[in-house]
Amino acid sequence: MQITFKDVTADYQIGPLRTPRVLDSVDFNLEPGTFTAVIGHTGSGKSSLLKAMNGLLIPVKGEVHIGGTVINRSKNKKSLKTIRKKVGMVFQFPESQLFAETVEQDICFGPLNFGVPLEEAKRIARQVIQQVGLGPDILTKSPFALSGGQKRRVAIAGILAMQPEVLVLDEPGAGLDPRGKKEILSLISKWHNNEKLTTVMVTHDMEDVAHYADNVVVMEKGQAVLHKGVRELFADIHALKSLRVDIPQARKLQLKIEQETGVKLPQVCLTIDELANCLMKAGLV
Amino acid sequence: MTARVVEVSNLVFGYDKRDKEQTLTDINFSVNKGEWVAVIGHNGSGKSTLAKLLVGLLEMDDGSISIAGINLNDNTKWEVRRHIGLVFQNPENQFVGTTVQDDVAFGLENINMPYEEMNNRVEEALKMVDLSELRFHDPSRLSGGQKQRVALAGILALRPSVLVLDEALVMLDPGSRRELLLTLKQLNKSSDMTIISITHDMDEAAEADRILLLEAGRLVDSGKPSDVFSKHQQLEPPFSEALRRMLKRQKNTVPDTYMTEEELVNWLCKSHLKM
């Protein structure tokens, strides 16, 4: 599903106060089936960008297109429901919104709200719980009796159960140990590929960008200052410096090796496998 | 001879006293003044339990712990805590002050520090963690990374001789994590502050002076990072070593021994020159 931002400006209104321009003339187009990473410093508007995709933040100017549906200022609130059915949103620390008595009830909550019959919802719950790497026996447990990593999976399963076409995630790996994080992210990546989703993920970690995303949006002060392919971005050392973007480990070591040996490797390496292959190809090993 | 600032001998601990299963079994190690020690091991291997025992938050079943020459027990734990500080993984529930600076000052107030001195210490600690600008903010409304820094500043203000970090940097984004690590490293070198860092980050552990490896409540190894990573192949190695092993599988000319990033780059330079 295609996601297009056309000159989107948005702000939050709390009583009479307006925070000016959390999104400022954002303009980009995400092709269907792409995996986009959104990066930028704290307060740059990453989370607001995600909210705008789900109708939680309505633009004061411009419009957001999700597939054929438009979100703009004049949109009536009811039609946002169709958008929320298509766009599954996983907030930061999604486990804090678990609420039901059992895991099964929690996962069924979303589908039931969108009018799926109970039996069907239960069937979906059994299916998604396995897809997030947990056994069906966990369905009868209380979500509060689970470990941190398990809770996160259950929360994500709750979103997957709505069978969204667009998956929007706000730092899905935050606060997990490296192994737990890797598991969650490869799960999301697998789901993205199998279901041919359009995925947008906010992250601080450039390793995630290098391993899972195919293109990147860089946010700065509410503006989308750059939208590029991942490899292109990490090829451009000057842009990385001026945008103060971190470099993934493999690329960092590649640059160091190129500098010390004076040999330029045949491609921009994003992962350890690529770096190893390039070192062999270049005859350095 | 360097002074031993932490000494742990025959330490035993179990959460459930009815249970025979122990969380920590027969732990022996010591840490020298100014050393940076990384503690690694899987979830549930007893790392956090060890940290809590070191500062006297849990009472050991058997064995002894001595910090800066003081034998830790119920009577001495308050004195011991003036020498050793613990920063938790999640600072969320520990804020007591309504502003960042009040919160950092809390520990100092508890030990009746004169106002002038306290002021200086708070200022200094806030500067170290780069929070001076936020000193009048409400700590509970800061971002995750900023909260973590407030918690760290609170401990640094006390100037402990031993700092225990229980995965205290996981919530930070990689950029601020690197900055804070650098600050801590400088403190470690310049003022001889001993650091015991519990971590899952193998690249961080690789830069420690020594690694303690815990497995199922037992201390299975203690040694230089190069030795520990060579000996325990099941551990996820730091990036440069992972690359070396990957290259080794393909080409026989690659050296057999553990390599730091420096060593790997140097070796590549040399092998390039030979061609």
Q: How would you describe this protein?
A:
The complex is a heterodimer of chains A (285) and B (275). Chain A is an alpha/beta fold. Chain A has two domains: 3-246, P-loop containing nucleotide triphosphate hydrolases (Rossmann fold, 3-Layer(aba) Sandwich); 248-285, no CATH class. Helix content of chain A is 39%, strand content 24%. In chain A, the strands form two sheets. In chain A, strands 6-7-8-3-9-10 form a six-stranded mixed β-sheet, sandwiched between helices. A four-stranded antiparallel β-sheet of chain A has the order 2-1-4-5. In chain A, helix 3 (103-113) crosses helix 4 (118-131). Chain A is globular and about 65 Å long. The N and C termini of chain A lie far apart (44 Å). The model of chain A has no long low-confidence stretch (mean pLDDT 91). Chain B has 275 residues and is of the alpha/beta class. Helix content of chain B is 38%, strand content 21%. Chain B has ten helices and ten strands. Chain B has helices at 47-54, 77-80, 100-110, 115-128, 144-156, 174-190, 202-205, 225-231, 239-250, 261-274, and strands at 4-13, 24-32, 36-40, 62-67, 70-71, 84-87, 162-166, 194-198, 210-215, 218-223. In chain B, the strands form two sheets. A six-stranded mixed β-sheet of chain B has the order 6-7-8-3-9-10, sandwiched between helices. Chain B has a four-stranded antiparallel β-sheet with strand order 2-1-4-5, covered by helices on one side. The N and C termini of chain B lie far apart (47 Å). The relative contact order of chain B is 0.14. The model of chain B has no long low-confidence stretch (mean pLDDT 91). The interface between A and B is medium-sized, with 28 and 33 residues.
